[in-house]
Amino acid sequence: MIIGTGMAVPDNVVTNEDLTRIMDTSDEWITSRTGVRERRFVDEGVGSAALGSEAARAALADAGCGPGDIDALINATMTPDFQAPGNAALIQHELGLGPIASFDLRQQCSGFLYGLDLADSLIAAGRADTVLVVGSEVHGGYFPWGETFDVALGKSDRQPRGEERARNTSSRSWTVVFGDGAGAMVVRRGDTLNEGVLASELHTDGSQFDLILVPGVGSRHRPFVDQRQLNDDLHVPVMDGASLYRQAVRLMPAAVRSVAARAGIGIEEIDLVVAHQANDRILEGVRRQLDMRDERVPSNIAKYGNTTSGTLPILFHELRRAGRVTPGTVVCFTAFGAGAHWGALIYREPR
Ligand code: ACO
Q1: CA-CA distance, 255 to 199, in Å (whole number)?
Q2: Helix, strand, coil % over all residues of the chain, rounded to 5
Q3: Domains delineated in the chain
Q4: Model's pTM, two decimal places?
Q5: Would the pLDDT of 193 be above 90?
Q6: Angstrom distance (rounded) from CA 211 to CA 217
Q7: Ligand 1 pocket check: which of 17, 33, 205 to mutate, most ligand atoms within 8 Å of Cβ?
Q8: Residue nearest to atom 21 of ligand 1 (CA)
Q9: Three-state DSSP class for 309?
Q10: pLDDT digit string (tens) for 61-97?
């Protein structure tokens, strides 16, 4: 069962209007195509491990746990501080957790869902009683914005040069969607059947590995990264947005139906579908497929954009804070993202 939640988002707010200072775009285009109105970005030098640690600390406090109470740590991120080691070691150290097992997951938008499933599996196998799961992302390093980042943040009022503006505009269809953020949960063994995680299913289709792909900075290159890759923007994701949309709208609802059947409940018994916040139009598609109204498939993408592995724990934390998760509430977490990885997990809040 989930005994504590926390989140951390940076203070720097960048509105759609702010983005028009560095690229050709408009609030109208971004809002109508994605639902995003603003997003947050860390200051340069702050990594996803620090943001994840902040969210984790809040979740521990919420759960009333000290560092000694955690048996295992799982961190999901597609934007780790370093190529190696992974963030889990950094967060373990930052929080002063003991010499526990810690895992780094590389499942992008589905990373937190995979983490929750792994936490439940470790508990079910008797390998842990209390597991800390963290999803954290700092996306700025992907953006080819260079010095114009400061213009978007309002920290510089210089006019971007023509070539800078053109470069920013060439990646606008995906940069406008993403934001930085982290969320965390403390998961503990429950003692009642039919509460906590009821069922879960996870999927991968590696033939779709290039739906969203960062083609550079990896072991196919010697060295991993060089000036040519940077010049060609190979450190920047390429995304097939239209295909992603079609797959996400089909596969998330299918996973929700399938996992509900596995849990032995009808989808009418699901109170909340906490779905990955990639795009409001995808969420509308999920609602349509599941024949559910807005409030059952909530969205907070307007405030934070797509925080990749951060979206599920941040949204769940906000719903808990708003009093929408009460004893007996049935929540279905679902996500679809790069890999392609997707799945769904049914959770009943203990009575
Ligand atoms: N501002 C203004 N115009 C833009 C922008 C922008 N930010 N981005 C693209 N455009 C223009 C393009 O230049 C193009 O113009 P043209 O027709 O004159 O050539 C037009 O809008 C359409 O461009 P597309 O790239 O085809 O944009 P699309 O309509 O596919 O919308 C979007 C892009 C919103 C990302 C869409 O593909 C989508 O909803 N995809 C779903 C996937 C998604 O949201 N991924 C992000 C997260 S990934 C994940 O979490 C799994």
Answers
A1: 11
A2: 40, 20, 35
A3: 2-188 (3.40.47.10), 196-348 (3.40.47.10)
A4: 0.97
A5: no
A6: 18
A7: 33
A8: 173
A9: helix
A10: 999 999 999 999 999 999 999 999 999 999 999 999 9
